[in-house]
Fold this protein.
Amino acid sequence: MSGANVSLWKSGNEGNSFSPAGHPNVRQWIAPSAPAVVLAPMEGVTDAAMRALQGEIGPFAFAVSEFLRISHAVPPRHVFYRHVPELRHDATTPTGLSVQVQLLGGDAGRMAESAGVAVECGALAVDLNFGCPAPTVNRHDGGATLLKYPARIREIVRAVRAAVPRHLPVSAKMRLGWDATDPVFENAAMAAEGGASWVTIHGRTRVAGYAPPIHWGPIGRVRERLGIPVVANGDIWTVDDFRRCRDATGCEHFMLGRGALADPRLPHRVAAELGLPAKPIEAEVDWCGLLKRFAEWSDAIRGGRADGAVRKLKQWLRLAAQFGEFAAFDAVKRADTADEVFRILSEPAYPAARAAAVASGPHQTPRATTATASATTVAAADQLSPSGTAFPFSSVPGSSSVTIRSSRR
């Protein structure tokens, strides 16, 4: 990749910080009457490079990191820096996007100690994962398995809240329940009693995985009862989906994950619906340019190592082909290098295929996904590797086609 070199992080505090109550690093995360679009954590997908890219192109208020698993011991500081390198830079990507650290585990004491270490490393907000459906995680007392024990959710949130300075938020992310939707009311109430600043809810149970249907209604009923903000999450693939979710939940905060990657224009459309600043929306996605930019960030963040780069590109394109308008996955899926992917997307045959895809609409809507496919998805999630790669900060991607922002509003 070629382009002008600039510093990965500008010197000084140039994030979206402000200074209420004398705390210079307090930021606006989730607050009542302040609509927001949040980038979801997706293990093995939304790593530091993807967060940097989304900070550059997206309208997100902040991103939540991939979870850091807390099992038998409290991770040392270098693990936090490796997993969330933005912690060395005011918990902000080089493109100005704030990053909230997510922890996963079932031991309240170790979770609290780990949250304390995260803050010492520079975390300005902590999220607790009670929703991960991966079987290995659930078998080891983490993620969605905690949904079966409401009192433990309160205990963990309360312990973490006590370990984190009061001016820094602690939030919780959960599903509706393990195998039924009603537990969400008690679980969300327990999180609030423990001191959660807000709760993010995915509108499915753990057993449902990603199978249809999505249940947004219970999210709205939780919002009406809870007294703290509720962030709606799950199956927002189009702006029409967003409108239905907003109508069903009454929420003003939304977390986008797979939908934002399948169609990079979607976050801007949602932001515009919420009355937030958004970039003009292009008629088509420039996948070649977008993937090149992602590869540039990956090279800079991973210290120029190419291992895994093409896998991540194809992982993204597979999602865009399944649920979006990307039409050339069959051509790129056997590519061995990132450059080969870019060459294929630059060939004359690709624009014609792209135009045909736009005319025909998405290849497969999520609502048509079978329960069998959903079970496969949950099993596959268990196989995604964590990011956890250290990187130097002396080099940076450059691009003549993309402008890097040094700060965010």
The longest helix spans residues 287-301. Residues 134 and 383 are 8 Å apart (CA to CA). The chain is about 40% helix and 10% strand.
